[in-house]
Structures are given as C-alpha cells and as structure tokens.
C-alpha cells in the first residue's frame, strides 16, 4: 500500500509539472495597438495600407470629373486583389478594410460583391413567391458599378543568416466599367527589417 501511495504521489507530481509547463498566458490588447511578432504582413499593415490608399483615391479628380458629367456619385465595386507575395495574406480582410473606408467616406456609392449579390438575388426570388406586394422588392432594379478597384500585393525578400528585409508593394487600379479606362493608379510600399534566428518565408 505504501508503494502504491508513493507511485500515485509521483504520478501526480509529474502531472502537475507538465501542466505548469503548458500553461498559457493571455493579455488583452487594444485592437488598434500595433504588434509585429514575425515581421509578416499583419492586421496593422492591412488597415494602414487600406486607409492611406483609399484616402488617396478619394482625393483625385476622377470623382469630381464623373460627378460633373453624370450628375451623381460614382458607384464602386472592389474586384480581385491578388496575393503574389511569398506568404499567406488574408486579402479578404484587406478588401473589407477598403470597402469600409470607401463607404464611410460618403464620397461614393458602393456595390455589393458578386457573392453578396447572389445571396441577395436568392432572397429576391423568395420574396417574389412569398412576400406581400407592398413589401416585395422586384428584380432588375440593381445599381450597376461605374468603377472597379483591382490590385495585387507583391513582396521582395532579402535575407542574410538571421537578418531579413521584407519589402511589400501594394498596387491598386481603378477602372471605368464603361470603357476600361484606368482613372487612378495607387501604390503603397512597406519595408520591414526582421532579426530572428528562426525566420520563415
């Protein structure tokens, strides 16, 4: 019985030590606080680049030129943003940041993406079958986009032993849907120096 108790006590001690080694520490942070752990593209980069590039596109003469000619605000849709970098980048988050900046500016109207339109059109079909006449939204009344914002994210990696320079270049183009004219081209560059014994590409 004594040996059993000793064995049980030993197992519990080892278990306690392992549990202690595997403990997790969590600290809540402000969502706007900039934290760069790996040097890779992160949420702060996405937000900063989106804010700066949208501020630039909204300050250019294409808006006033279009409004003067058509008498209305331009309608914009965000197309494909290609990730041509060396790393995984959640371009959906980047697109969402740009959409938010465009909509909240009040300078342009914003058109739903193709995936969102499919869902809305499905709801319209359901309304056509099931909703009352005074609440039904008819098909064929959608606002078409006047301009599409497209772009890509590229990287250049320069490394030497444990040191690395990460260069990011974001290129965006605003294209007229009517005649394929490029009415604005924007570019934002980021460069990060990373020193780490376990750098990853």
Q: What Rg do the Cα atoms give?
A: 26 Å
Structural class estimated from helices and strands: alpha/beta
CATH superfamily: ABC-type transport auxiliary lipoprotein component
Number of helices: 5
Helix content: 25-40%
Primary descriptors:
alpha/beta, LpoB, Penicillin-binding protein activator LpoB, Rossmann fold, 5-stranded mixed beta sheet, 201 residues
Give a quick precis of the structure:
The protein is an alpha/beta fold and 201 residues long. It has one domain: Rossmann fold (3-Layer(aba) Sandwich). The protein has five helices and five strands.
Provide a descriptive summary of the structure in words.
- This protein is an alpha/beta fold and 201 residues long.
- It has a single domain, classed as ABC-type transport auxiliary lipoprotein component (Rossmann fold).
- It has five helices and five strands, in the order H-H-H-E-H-E-H-E-E-E.
- A five-stranded mixed sheet has the order 2-1-3-4-5, covered by helices on one side.
- The mean pLDDT is 84.
- It comes from Sinobacterium caligoides.
- Pfam families: LpoB.
- This is Penicillin-binding protein activator LpoB.
